[in-house]
Amino acid sequence: MKFTLSWLKDHLETDATLNDIVERLTSIGLEVEHVDDKSSLKPFVIAKVLTAVQHPDADRLRVLTVDTGDGKPPVQVVCGAPNARAGLIGAFAAPGTYVPGIDVTLTVGKIRGVESHGMMCSERELELSDEHNGIIDLPADAPVGTSFASYAHLDDPVIEINLTPNRPDATSVYGIARDLAASGLGTLKSGAVEKIPGKGETPVKVVIEAPELCPGFALRLVRGVKNGPSPKWLQQRLIAIGLRPISALVDITNYVTFDRGRPLHVFDARKVAGNLVVRRARDGEKVMALDGREYTLTPDMCAIADDNGVESIAGVMGGEHSGCDENTSDVLIESALWDPITTARTGRTLGIITDARYRFERGVDPEFMVPGVELATKLVLDLCGGEPAETEVVGYAGHKPKIVSFPLSEVTRLTGIEVPKAESLDILSRLGFKPQGSGDVVDVAVPSWRPDVDGKADLVEEVMRIHGVDNIAPQPLGAHDAVNSKILTTLQVRTRTAKRALAVRGMMEAVTWSFIPAKHAELFGGGQTALKLANPIAADMSDMRPSLLPGLIAAAQRNADKGIGDVALFEVSGTYEGDGADQQRRVAAGVRRGTAKLDGSGRSWAGNSGPVGVFDAKADAIAALEACGAPVDRLQIEAGGPSWYHPGRSGTIKLGPKTVLGTFGEFHPKTMEGLDVSGPLCGFEVFVDAVPEPKAKPTKTKPKLELSAFQAVKRDFAFVVDKAIEAGTLVRAALAADKKLITAVSVFDIFEGASLGADKKSIAIEVSIQPVEKTLTDEDFEALAKRVVENVGKQTGGVLRG
Amino acid sequence: MNATAGNLEALEDSLLADIASAADEPAIEAVRIAAFGKKGTVSEMLKTLGAMTAEERQLKGPVINGLKNRVTEALTARKAELRDVAIAARLAAEKVDVTLPVRQSPAERGRIHPISQVIDEIAAIFGDLGFAIAEGPDIETDYYNFTALNFPEGHPAREMHDTFFFQPDEKGERKLLRTHTSPVQIRTMEKQKPPIRIVIPGKTYRQDSDATHSPMFHQVEGLVIDRSANVANMKWVLEEFCKAFFEVPSVKMRFRPSFFPFTEPSLEVDIQCDRSRPGEVRFGEGSDWMEILGCGMVHPNVLRAGGLDPDEYQGFAWGMGIDRIAMLKYGMPDLRAFFDADVRWLSHYGFRPLDMPTLFGGLSA
Questions:
Q1: CATH no. for residue A125?
Q2: Which range is least confidently modeled, A505-509, B223-227, B249-253, B255-259?
């Protein structure tokens, strides 16, 4: 919403400065977005070039003598403009003047040896336009010696406010003046509209076939008008707010739209055939609108049609066919009410933004429908002459004001500031509300121009914004009287810790899109209909991700494509198993590419990093689970993972037979192909929300540390087993041989070779033994070793390697 | 050999010369064995003492023992000398080039994304003010995202143009991606009786894409509901937050009346800043205003939707962009880079994993 200061002062009696007005507007909720204040152009005066001769030393320069109209002798000015000539009248800047377009304050200077006492300016130098081919060339009657800014009507600052969608009342200069006056920044002048009697009925009848879209329609014929350019004052106002003057009749509608927030439309009565019918558009019905474009309508839209077809898209834009032009002699003035939602939807669907739509979608004042016609009629008569018929009003049932029961104590309750009762009531009255009664609770009638107000909280807002939000002093929120306890849930703590734990492993946290290409989703078990967006922003952002891996793998590849092939990325975020609130999982996932191992990547004098693989992913997965508090010593690793992994180089991490805590591995060649990525590549995913909640314990005391007094011993064993035997099984068998004495079993060598046989391998383990009651004798060790060999043999078929 | 005086003198001279000329530890050991071994020259001399008469022994004993002691002493001294030489030689041989680089610690290499870091910063501040952290699903129903939050039918946000929708299910219900974190307000009110003090960080989605808008972004929402929370309290909370978050001793904030469907009264908040230096924003100084958040008193209809009586309970809510305040605080120019996972960007703008924001240690290092 744009307006000029002088236009505002048509409605507001005030001595306030521009600055005060701008600050007040913002503080009462009419946020000023931009002020175009050309007051810096004040020092520029209209001056006349008396003589222009060639500069003795420069081909392109001329030496001018200029009459600045101050009664003093002409001044000498050196000028480079090709249009500088004797007799030209333009804008002159004296030494000492700041010229905004070149950001320079002028001084008396010599240009190629000739003194110059000022400057004749181009439009660009005054920041009026980009025009710099010559200096400003004014008509011969421009008054020399007077202010250029006031001559060019640049001394009227233009204010633009960013209007919130709830304030239809402030889509008019009058409404803005009313708000400012209510805030104490002046007095609102009367907005009363003179009633103009008409002669005879308006012959064109209005038929409302869609009353739900049109709660009222006023139409008035004015015969015998002469439509030409509108007067200068009107043109200048429209130009100042960015509108193009067209003709008096059209300019009047625009003027009333901005002045009173009352959009109007004018039909050339001679082009209207039969009656005007307000109805839903027919599917596929076409109309050529005033912007010269053809629009195709649907039954969701409201049209005004005559016997020729659609003449206007209701509330949005008129049609070209029945528009007014210089030949219009009889004009039909339309002032109607349109359903805000339909207007908004129509405008959005058709992609039309107009000043009419802007107001109708917010809701115009129904009580100003008829006065709008009267105001327009007066302007038409003033500017174009003619004879009005009577106004025809159809469908309007009148406005029944909303009554809000308002306990005045609400102001203090909601804002924390005490506003005296009288002041609250006064503020409401000044805004046009009608409080009735004088007790603690009053009934407040809401004015017809405030459809947004319907409850007592709305009235609190009115009092608060006019009384001043700045007057509300911050008050501490009741402080807690104890040390704060833990505020994060287990899942939040785990999410946070998992991130830090993975970052500590040299990985970088990525945040990738929740929606991924359908093909990627399908490769990772997703792609179901319920998780497909109906309106994705791009075709490859269509499906909610079933896994974090495709996004991370694609991200790793993007880095590789930029020449950074060794990357380790992770993400801890949501994946989607379905569209239910409980089907969003919290997952930690990571990928390593190239040689981005835990200790670093690439080559080093101390040893190169090899390609990443399943065990790097396994280590990451277990680290993440450990950070989430999973019981790492009870995890079971099963060979193989979901279909997107390499079947022989992946694993599943379980806790008990049912709970899957994660998967890890290298990827299936078809996955890599489907994602169009290259390796080496490995990754993991762990389900943070599947880790069991820790048991609440009555104490934080740690279990007592038992340290054995006897020396710990290590013994090595090597077993020959079938190749298919998993090391994990063998390790568990060795551990189980004596749960009391054996504290750990580690695998330190795996050997396969012809000497063992084609289907065999050797697994070498180190068994840690911690005597607890006495030092073990050789016989004790023999017995223990025997139990280890026996149990391993029983569980795996392995025999001690000879 | 006889232990004549001449012989002894010659033997001593010869041994001392051998000791002096021994070049390394094996050589000196050879000299020792030659002198003191079983058949060693000095051992042999000492053996002769046994066959002597007492008088002879009284005479020769001290002489021979004197020789033994002097030779022993010379041996010990030379041995120590040679050991030092040997150690020095070994050390010289073991010298390495300590300027060779070592690998960087993974903890120094890894990075936390600015969004996670800023969420932790927010949690640290609001945790101190007695707030809990609440979360909710990204895929929402129309009810939680719009209806319960007092969005009227026909509100532009409900259009496909602004909001991501899923296909309607068999009941005709159309799920959507939440456009704000506000549905969690309702979900919290349904589960928990006031007093409520929560902040809600999370992912949000809108049909928007340019340098400052992304179809997926992050918001943090705050909600306070009790029997007295008012605009004055809200101003206090937000000013305290901004001071703490931007780590400046004071901030100047401008509260402007505004409009949101789910609050009434509604306010937008600008923060005073200095943007005169390219690529840098300083808070608590300067003459620019920058919009930073929206807030207001929870709309009575929203309280009702949460099962609360608006005449009994009241409160305020606010929301702001996590990405946006992260960009402002840490000077990141383009929102799109947040979601690109370029490791150069992550390495530069990300945070070291051990830089954990706390109030007692300072939010940022």
A1: 2.40.50.140
A2: B249-253
Same domain, A137 and A162: no
CATH number of the domain bearing residue A685: 3.30.930.10
Give the pairing type, strands A158-162 and A31-36. Answer: antiparallel
Q: Do A89 and A164 share a structural domain?
A: no
CATH number of the structural domain spanning residue A795? 3.30.70.380
Q: What is the DSSP letter of B111?
A: B
pLDDT tens-digit map of A591-643: 999 999 999 999 999 999 999 999 999 999 999 999 999 998 889 999 999 99
Q: What is the Cα B182 distance to its own chain's centre?
A: 31
Give the global pTM. 0.87
**Do A24 and A171 belong together in one domain?**
yes
| Number of folded domains that form chain A | 6
Q: Does B229 touch chain A (CB under 8 A)?
A: yes
DSSP state of A282: P
SS3 state of residue A209:
coil
Same structural domain, A26 and A79? no
Among B49, B25, B46, B26, CA closest to B35: B46
Supply the CATH number for residue A348's domain. Answer: 3.50.40.10
Q: Do A492 and B340 touch (CB under 8 A)?
A: no
The CA distance from A230 to A380, in Å, is 10
Tokens of B17: 């010369």
A346 and A229 in a single domain? The answer is yes
* Residues A296 and A216 occupy one common structural domain: yes
The string of DSSP letters for A1-14 reads: -EEEHHHHHHHEE-
Contact check, Cβ <8 Å, B102/A530: no
A579 touches chain B (CB under 8 A): yes
Degrees to nearest 5, angle at CA A682 with A677 and A686: 120
- Does residue A201 fall inside a structural domain? no
Q: Which residues contact B319 (CB under 8 A, 6 or more apart)?
A: B180, B181, B182, B219, B220, B221, B222, B293, B294, B295
Residue A484 resides in a domain: no
Contacts of A172 (CB under 8 A, 6+ apart): A258, A259, A260, A261, A262
Residue A257 falls within a domain, yes or no?
A: yes
Kindly determine whether residue B116 and residue A499, on different chains, have CB atoms separated by under 8 Å.
Answer: yes
Cross-strand partners of A319: A289
Which of A23, A346, A418, A475 should be substituted to probe chain B, the one whose Cβ sees the most B Cβ atoms within 10 Å? A475
Q: What are phi and psi of A721, to 5 degrees?
A: -130, 170
CATH number at residue A181: 3.30.56.10
Q: Are A761 and A751 in contact (CB under 8 A)?
A: yes
Q: Are the Cβ atoms of B264 and A510 closer than 8 angstroms?
A: no
Residue A117 domain-assigned?
yes
Structure confidence by residue, pLDDT tens digits, A41-65: 888 999 999 998 998 888 888 999 9
Containing domain of residue A433, as a range? Answer: 403-470
| Tokens found for residue A577 | 């198993």
Min CA distance, A534 vs chain B (Å)?
5
What Å distances lie between residue A574 and A511, A549, B357, CA to CA?
Answer: 11, 12, 23
Judged by CB atoms closer than 8 Å, whether chains meet at A475 and B233 is answered as yes
Residue A341 sits at the chain B interface (C-beta within 8 Å): yes
ipTM value, please give it: 0.89
In this structure, are A386 and A535 located in the same domain?
Answer: no
Query: What residue type is assigned to position A699 of the chain?
Result: T
Same domain, A93 and A118: yes
